[in-house]
Task: structure prediction
Amino acid sequence: MTKVFVYGTLKKDFHNNCILDNDEYVGIAYSKRKLVLVEQGGLPFVLDPNQFPIGDKDLCCHIFGELYNITDANTLYHLDRLENHPDWYERRETEFIDKKGVTHKAWCYFLNDELTGKCHVNISGDYQRSI
Result:
């Protein structure tokens, strides 16, 4: 089954979660690999440190979010439109670990463009804790 991992405004209690209304919530999870979570203008972006090299590896962390089983055939289409895939965000398959320690492969949206201006690096890996 196709899964998606969400870490920002697509999570429960955020305004874009309605896109996932017809899909199955699996639970909270975190990225198996350390990534970089930055925020700019109230929006979170996940960066691959291999794509956007950063000097300080302490800025890399496990990203926390939610896993969903995609049961609605239209969901990925709507997510791709929201995230402007593949221009602004790029959907990539990545591994995530749930509360039980089970590893899942799921789609996740990574920034695919350069950030301009000031941004905040969130070293907690949890977008919700920063707002």
Remarks:
- The chain has one helix and eight strands.
- The radius of gyration is 14 Å.
- The beta strands are 3-6, 24-31, 36-40, 43-47, 64-69, 89-98, 103-111, 120-121.
- The chain has a mean pLDDT of 91.
